[in-house]
Specification:
With about 425 residues, the protein is of the alpha/beta class. It has two domains: about 5-45 and about 205-275 and about 390-430, FAD/NAD(P)-binding domain (3-Layer(bba) Sandwich); about 50-205 and about 280-380, 3-Layer(bba) Sandwich (FAD/NAD(P)-binding domain). Helices cover about 30% and strands about 25% of the residues. The protein is built from 13 helices and 20 strands. The strands form five sheets. Strands 8-7-16-17-18-15-19 form a seven-stranded mixed sheet, with helices on both faces. A hairpin with a 6-residue loop joins strand 16 and strand 17. The radius of gyration is 22 Å and the shape is globular.
């Protein structure tokens, strides 16, 4: 009896790796094809002159139930952000809003912060209690998913000042949408994750997460430098893939685990239509090297100025010293929306100005720009009703499956769940 042919997974991001992991743990043969020379998809870290530069500002919520369960968190040597935010107004002294239930030392500065009224702070506490009372999946109930974050916050009584000076820069940074038109379901689950855990980065950079997942797969499972050009079919069933080199690889099961546009394009080569989200949200992150921190502390800085270019920023080396060489500092500043598409020169000038106004450090003007990471597809748009538009892992072509965050939410946790869902669908096919 000939051995069972391996499942082919196209894409080595979090979804593809989690799919491969689930299949391998079930004893199913698997082969993962990644077009780049390393795995990770959008979760990557480049080391430059001793600085660890993630490809865009990224973090891990260690309360993610599925992804965290799959990872060896102690081995990642996680470094935690302080559960707070500095809110800057363009030259004025910043205020601090924090989770005093997670860090009691934040109670007094939060109570004194002028950016939120006492009533809004009480509303924030009630929202925290409400979000943590929900099960993870309950956050995506229709009554939350069908309204925008902005509408939801107004319905809970938050003032326009709280919305514009806190929620827009803070959750705008998480949702990549300062207009807060993202589904309120996404706000709730992120609020829950922030309250129940910590925001962290691995000591070796975010790229350590996919690297760890890949290292646990069977030897020879991951094949990098292999770009798939099209999916092959024989009648009503999938029969393999063709690489850019012209080589064909036979398979009775193919899992598409690329980003959403690539999934749609590859599926189309086999005559399959997959309704992936049409719009994407991008961001641009600039990394600066300096001798002293451009922004103090180990909490995220939010730019609440009306003319903000920088949405949020932080001196990453204050959180994770391993991100920079000894006696050096690394600051990351992230820009959203149309501002993220400015020319390099204009963007750099405006970001330096914003950092100087936010942190009050004259060194912002002379700090060395190490890199500018432009990420045009950082998340897909999760407008109200996004949960109802999730893409199922099973397609109309027998043997063709989808492993992606588009099966859940645009997040690391969503990617992990999308990968597992696809693997389970593949395994169910053989029962």
């Amino acid at each position: 009896m000939s051995p069972e042919p391996p499942t082919l997974i196209v894409g080595g991001g979090i979804s593809g790796l989690m799919c491969a992991r689930t299949l391998a743990l079930a004893g199913a043969p698997v082969r993962l094809l990644e077009r780049d020379l390393t795995v990770g998809g959008r979760v990557r870290t480049t080391v430059q002159r001793g600085f660890q530069l993630d490809h865009g500002f990224q973090v891990l919520f260690n309360a993610y139930p599925v992804l965290s369960a799959a990872l060896d968190l102690p081995a990642l040597r996680l470094r935690a952000f302080r559960p707070a935010a500095f809110i800057a107004y363009g030259g004025a002294a910043p205020s601090v809003i924090g989770d005093a239930l997670a860090d009691f030392s934040l109670l007094w500065p939060t109570l004194r912060a002028p950016s939120l009224s006492l009533v809004d702070k009480l509303r924030m506490l009630r929202l925290r209690s409400f979000a943590t009372s929900l099960a993870f999946d309950d956050c995506f109930a229709d009554r939350y998913d069908r309204v925008s974050t902005l509408v939801f916050l107004r319905a809970r009584g938050f003032s326009e000042r709280a919305i514009t000076q806190f929620f827009a820069p803070f959750y705008g940074g998480i949702l990549l949408d300062r207009s807060l038109q993202t589904s309120a379901a996404v706000l709730l689950y992120t609020f829950k994750m922030l309250a129940e855990g910590r925001t962290v980065v691995p000591a070796a950079g975010m790229g350590a997460i996919p690297a760890q997942l890949a290292s646990a797969l069977p030897a020879g499972c991951v094949c990098t430098g292999n770009s798939v050009q099209r999916v092959l079919r024989d009648g009503d069933v999938v029969c393999g893939v063709e690489l850019d080199s012209g080589e064909t690889i036979s398979a009775s099961v193919v899992v598409l685990a690329c980003d959403a546009p690539a999934i749609a394009a590859l599926a189309a080569t086999a005559g399959v239509t997959i309704a992936v989200p049409e719009r994407a949200l991008g961001c641009t992150t600039l990394y600066f090297r300096s001798a002293v921190p451009l922004l103090d502390g180990d909490a995220l800085w939010l730019n609440a100025a009306a003319d903000a270019t920088v949405s949020h920023a932080i001196t990453l080396s204050n959180v994770a010293p391993s991100y920079a060489p000894t006696n050096e500092c690394l600051t990351a500043a992230t820009v959203l929306g149309m501002a993220a598409t400015m020319s390099d020169a204009e963007l750099e000038s405006r970001v330096r100005s914003d950092l100087r106004n936010m942190g009050g450090k004259s060194q912002s003007g002379s700090a060395e720009l190490l890199a500018t990471w432009r990420v045009p597809y950082a998340q897909y748009v999760q407008a109200p009703g996004a949960t109802a538009r999730r893409v199922e892992p099973v397609t109309s072509l027998t043997g063709l499956f989808v492993a992606s965050e588009i099966g859940h939410t645009s997040s690391l946790e969503g990617a992990a769940r999308g990968g597992i869902a696809a693997a389970n669908a593949v395994l169910a096919r053989g029962t």
